[in-house]
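Example record

The entry below shows one chain as it appears in the dataset: sequence first, then structure tokens.
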Amino acid sequence: MTKYEMTLVVSAHVDEEVRNATFDKVRGYITKNGGNITDPGTPEKKTLAYEIQKMNEGWYAFIKFEAEPEAPALIEQEIRITANVLRFLTVKEGE
């Protein structure tokens, strides 16, 4: 299995319950596609480097997981249609 790190940015305009549900949903996509979460990440509110959808802040989480090489593409397909996710990026650890 390959080690990955996903950066996930969720809208700051949603309440805590919706925000936590969004992060849980993404973690569910990882496990559903055969991934093993090694660090679920702690969401932190940060100022965005540039405005996205008229927002200057977002909730960031850095999720570390292990998965087969084809899993990140499948996970990202599902994240693309998830509400409240502003941006995401998955990279191999160590690169």
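Notes for this example: The longest strand covers residues 55-67. The beta strands are 2-11, 36-39, 44-52, 55-67, 85-92.
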